[in-house]
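User: What would this chain look like folded?
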Amino acid sequence: MPDPVFAEIVNMIVMQVLVALGGMNTPDGQQIPPDLNVAKHQIDVLGLLAEKTKGNLTDDEQKMLDSTLYELQMRFVQAASPPDGGEGKPSA
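Assistant: Here's the prediction, encoded as C-alpha cells.
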C-alpha cells in the first residue's frame, strides 16, 4: 500500500457529500435519494478540517482543500435551491 496522503481524507468526505447530494447510484443502478442535512453536515466537517489544518498544509494541499470545499458548497446551494430559481409561483 502507498503511504497515506492528505487528499485521501478529503476524498473520503467528498464521496460522502456526493452520495448525500444524490449524485451516486446503488450497485444495481438505483439513484440514491438526496439527504441535504447529511450533505451539509459533511461539508461542515470538511470546513472544520480546513480550519483545524490551516497553516499546516503544503500550498498544493491547501489549494486542493479550498477549491474542493468551494465546489461542494456551490453544489449544495444548487441542490438546495428550488428548481424554479427560487422565485416560486404566484399564489392564486
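The chain is about 60% helix and 0% strand. If you want, I can go into more detail on any region.
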